[in-house]
Write a structure and sequence with these properties.
Jelly Rolls, Arc Repressor Mutant, subunit A, 2 domains, 21% strand
């Protein structure tokens, strides 16, 4: 797993500010408060499995907070699965609090404010799933965060083992080749989470919509991906497919275009893809024409792909105040 931040590489006076910047870039925008008089140490390593990001971090005691203002300024939403590896972690969201010992895990939603407190030196692996990939209702998402999952239960144990294997696979394989595995991971993780939490299963339409969305994400590079092909892959009519998406406020075509744009936008900001041209990234996301891609990108995000790429490399991070 490539290391993207190592405190030993920087002078002691710069470490905390650069830690804050690394957290912003490799998770989501967060406020970080470091409360330790000792010299700061920390490490972040990340890898990918399709759209799934796996990040392992270790550091000194601190509090990490996602506020409403940070959420409103963000363009992407995720459901996070955090597995405590060392020390204690406290995840708080929706008035609930999950206190994690090593081997235990919790979930949180980046579209609602949350706090994560590490009172001692710690390490945690976070699995960052695009929020909409699960196809869950808002009620299901609201019931999921800040519930601690203990490794004693069979469902929790299986989930922990599966997530561990995902991390190994992400580190060993190619991101694009492992895209279908990430889609299957969404299905399995979603099923296990609902079993472990004992929640009511989503309706048949919601489950079907979840599978359709996962199929779309796995075939974004397919230029023939459209309502007819998607419907045929799931044994339903185009009219049924359109009805499924009507409840989301989008057409099938709009959803496919949005997901392609999100894939391209993420890839343009990926440091490992800096050698690729904008046209190549557009093609890999399923856009036939680079000019059409640029127009769609600007309509969606208010800037050109080239402007976004330049800004993603130089996004300023607010100065961190040590407490």
């Amino acid at each position: 797993m490539p290391v993207v931040y190592e405190s030993a590489d920087f002078s002691p006076t710069d470490r905390v500010a650069l830690w804050h910047e690394s957290v912003w870039r490799h998770y989501v925008p967060l406020d970080v408060s470091v409360r330790d008089v000792r010299p700061f140490t920390g490490q972040v390593a990340t890898d990918y499995l399709g759209d799934l990001r796996v990040a392992t971090a270790r550091s000194r005691p601190q509090t990490i907070r996602r506020t409403a203002s940070l959420i409103s300024a963000s363009s992407q939403a995720y459901l996070m699965v955090g597995v405590q590896a060392h020390g204690t972690g406290v995840v708080a969201q929706h008035g609930r609090e999950a206190v994690l010992a090593p081997g235990e895990m919790a979930f949180w939603d980046t579209e609602s404010p949350y706090d994560i407190h590490f009172p001692t030196d710690w390490a945690m692996t976070v699995y960052q799933f695009p929020r909409q990939s699960f196809g869950w209702s808002e009620a299901t998402i609201a019931a999921t965060p800040a519930v601690a999952l203990r490794p004693e239960g069979s469902g929790s144990r299986l989930l922990g083992q599966f997530l561990g294997q995902l991390a190994v696979t992400a580190a060993a394989g190619d991101q694009q080749d492992n895209g279908p595995l990430a889609v299957r991971a969404v299905d399995l993780v979603g099923t296990l989470v609902q079993q472990v939490l004992g929640g009511e299963p989503d309706t048949r339409d919601e489950l079907l919509l979840s599978r359709v969305r996962a199929h779309i994400d796995a075939h974004l590079a397919d230029r023939d991906l459209g309502p007819a092909a998607i419907a045929q892959a799931h044994g339903i009519s185009v009219r049924c497919l359109q009805r499924l998406f009507r409840q989301t406020g989008q057409t099938v075509t709009e959803h496919v275009r949005q997901r392609r744009l999100e894939l391209a936008r993420r890839e343009l900001a990926n440091p490992r893809s800096r050698h690729r041209t904008i046209a190549a990234v557009a093609r890999s996301a399923g856009f036939v024409d680079a000019a059409h891609f640029s127009r769609c990108f600007r309509e969606a995000y208010g800037e050109t792909p080239r402007q976004w790429t330049a800004r993603a490399c130089l996004t300023p991070v607010p100065q961190l105040r040590e407490a």
